[in-house]
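[User] I have long wanted to understand how a fold can be written as tokens. Those tokens are not coordinates but codes from a learned vocabulary of shapes. Could you go through the record with me and say what the backbone is doing? Thank you; the sequence and its tokens follow:
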Amino acid sequence: MSTADLTPPEAALWAARAGLPLPADRHAAVAAVAQHIHSVVAVLRELDFGDTPPAPTYRAEPEPEHHDAAV
């Protein structure tokens, strides 16, 4: 089952399976949010990151320069 097909009762079922019982008035809202998240993730999966190096190769700050006054 994809989240695109998620109905409010199914959202309640999946939440209960995860140990998160939902009040009845939240079922539709949770199903709608799950649909939105699914649509955003679908767009991210289509992006091509082929030439992008992994995050650990980036440094947030440049390495400090070490000045040596010795001549």
In short: The first helix runs from residue 8 to 17. The mean pLDDT is 85. Residues 13 and 28 are 12 Å apart (CA to CA). The radius of gyration is 23 Å.
